[in-house]
Amino acid sequence: MKTKVAIVDDNPRVRTSLRDMLLMMEGVDCLIDCPGPEEALQKLPNSGVHVILMDIQMPDMDGVACTRRLLQADSSPKVMMLTNHHDHDAILSSFKAGARGYLLKPIRATQLMAAIDDVMSGGSPIASHAANHLVDLVSLSEIEPEGPSPTLRMLSRREREILSCLNQGWQYKEIAGKLAISYSTVRTHVERLYKKLCVQSRAQALAKAGFSTRYTA
User: Fold this and answer.
1) Which of these, 16, 148, 170, 189, could form a disulfide with 174 (CB 3.0-4.6 Å)?
2) Residues 190 and 162 sit within 8 Å (Cβ to Cβ)
């Protein structure tokens, strides 16, 4: 039986390129391609599609929201995000919505075929850059298993990530590179978390948040 694949992407060049790749693959059938979430929500539920290649940034509705709604209507397809975005929020939101894989554009035919085989075998294919972000999220987490303290719950997830970086002695420029955000954005987050915690220094913030403080200066 052929693996039936659908494409959801607002870029006609991308759809054409992916469709051409899929049509050349043995054992794969490009069943449907949709120019956006609205058409995908109409055509894909109960369509018999096995794998959906989903873009993230699209007009009217993003691919994460579309994935969530599609899987509520029909939980059988396996959605793989295929996108240019590889920031923490996009990756986590995609998997929380039910995506089974996360691929980055541009993608070669061999990579796409391997990912389709992997997800059909029960795997979760993830592009190396996206996987690195997930590893970073785990390594940056300093919260105890029972959950964040009341103090930490005052902070956003991004602020807790930055606080963890501060605990490891990183400078703003290093944090910006690690989290793929700008230096000024790091500084703004730090100013906000200091204000929320009513502190004036890195050491005070870490102590108040209850971290096993490595940084004392």
Assistant:
1) 170
2) yes
